[in-house]
Design goal:
It comes from Caulobacter mirabilis. It is built from 14 helices and twelve strands. By secondary structure, it is an alpha+beta fold. It starts with a strand and ends with a strand. The site of coenzyme A has 18 residues, from helix 5 and helix 7.
């Protein structure tokens, strides 16, 4: 079996993604993806005719993002028509999954040169906002919910915090650390290696820096924010009185959900795209591509779809077991801060040293462009392993449906 090497990583800055606002909101998702796909091809001087596949992730394959966004973005980026492209959806886990699938096709001998990544335009107008009113469920969805009640992710985050006895103070403290670390990372240009500016069609600059962080965040400021998901918990979902709260209580009848998550300790809604170049050692050596990291192990893990966000801990254990490693063998961790409770529970359950986790801040400070985030995190890990001279990193994230993909990489 071949190894899979990571040759390079590129990403856009994350732009505020609030319904039609933010520096990237007017960019087409194909164009945003093309920005990083072009950068990764040019930086590494690859023959795009030899790209066996562009494996792309996006969780909203609707509107402008519909129709195999990966293939269309690659064509937009000027890739040779003999390259190929596919787009997948594992919700928030899409961007790790694309890298894992890329590595798997290289390991199996199916491919030699693959670009993996993702794109999410959370500012696209077809996304929902809490003000949009009742969600109508189709019949199939109702049938599934009778078997596996699935709630709203923010309500799930609060349910998990309640169950785990994790306080609002602890969640806010982690959010503050995220902002502080992101501020240091930005001030020290730690993201520079991967960041690719985004331009409008007329050549003017759209965005060249992270737009979401609030470096002035204070503990008092966070403490003053009102929880975001209490009202959402009781929005009627159908004409039978179903609510997100009731969907959780259908499985956990005694749980009195406390509401702790708010705009400061939840992941930011942003636009962004990222791409990584992976190659087999045979191809890389024959074509002068210098590897930056190797893929050590990969895994997927499912967990309760009702609580939705709890799979990262078992996913990390599974990928460690596959690699024959323990927690102590990992130098750096990236656990996506979908909500503060996801990262806090991950740190507690695995007994991690906080100084090794999300060292450059996470999605609470920088934002979480759903289908792109996993690829961003892997690229950030490659950069940070190189910057610090450390060896191994583990990256994982929760995904809707109660899943988590995970990957361990090693600097070369
Ligand atoms: C939590 C959430 C609903 C908040 O959205 P929002 O209310 O539109 O957030 P805003 O940016 O308007 O911020 C709300 C307020 O908090 C304030 N705020 C946000 N971050 C802050 C910080 N770090 N410090 C102080 N104040 C902050 C804002 O200034 C704003 O104040 P204002 O109302 O006085 O203007 C949204 O971020 C969200 O849904 N996040 C999760 C996304 C998600 O589910 N991703 C998938 C994961 S599974």
């Amino acid at each position: 079996m071949s190894e899979a090497w990571i040759i390079d990583a590129a990403r856009t800055p994350r732009g505020i993604g609030k319904y039609g606002k933010g520096a990237l909101h007017a960019i087409h998702p194909q164009q945003l993806g093309a920005t990083v796909l072009k950068a990764i091809a040019e930086r590494n001087d690859i023959n795009t005719a030899e790209v066996d596949d562009v494996i792309w992730g996006t969780s909203s394959q609707r509107g402008p993002a519909a129709g195999d966004l990966g293939r269309m973005s690659a064509l937009d980026a000027g890739y040779d028509i003999r390259s190929s492209g596919v787009t997948l959806d594992r919700f928030c886990g899409s961007g790790i999954t694309t890298v894992n699938f890329a590595a798997a096709t290289i390991m199996s001998g199916m491919s030699d040169l693959v670009v993996a990544g993702g794109c999410e335009m959370m500012s696209m107008p077809n996304r929902r906002s809490p003000e949009d009113g009742p969600v109508t469920m189709d019949q199939g969805n109702l049938r599934l919910r009778a078997k596996h009640p699935q709630s709203h992710q923010g309500v799930c985050a609060d349910a998990i915090a309640t169950m785990e006895g994790i306080s609002r103070e602890a969640l806010d403290a982690l959010a503050l650390v995220s902002q502080q670390r992101a501020a240091v990372a930005i001030a020290e240009n730690r993201f520079e290696k991967s960041l690719v500016p985004v331009y409008f069609e007329d050549g003017s600059l759209a965005l060249d820096h992270e737009e979401f962080p609030r470096p002035q965040t204070t503990a008092e400021g966070l403490a003053s924010l009102k929880p975001s998901f209490e009202a959402m918990a009781d929005v009627p979902l159908d004409n039978q009185g179903t609510t997100f709260r009731k969907l959780i209580n259908a499985v956990y009848p005694d749980l009195a959900i406390q509401f702790f998550h708010h705009a400061g300790n939840s992941s930011g809604v942003v636009d962004g795209s990222a791409a990584l170049l992976l190659a087999s050692p045979k191809y890389a050596e024959a074509n002068g591509l210098k590897p930056r990291a190797r893929v050590v192990a990969m895994a997927n893990q499912g967990d309760s779809p009702t609580l939705m966000l709890n799979a990262p801990v078992p996913a990390a254990r599974k990928v460690l077991a596959k690699a024959g490693l323990t927690v102590d063998d990992i130098d750096l961790w990236e656990i996506n801060e979908a909500f503060s409770v996801v990262a806090e529970k991950f740190i507690r359950d695995l007994g991690l040293d906080r100084e090794k986790v999300n060292v450059n801040g996470g999605a609470m400070a920088l934002g979480h462009p759903i289908g792109a985030t996993g690829s961003i995190l892997i690229g950030t890990m490659v950069d940070e392993l190189e910057r610090t001279g450390k060896k191994r990193g583990l990256i994982t994230m929760c995904a809707a449906g109660g899943m988590a993909p995970a990957i361990i990489i090693e600097r070369m």
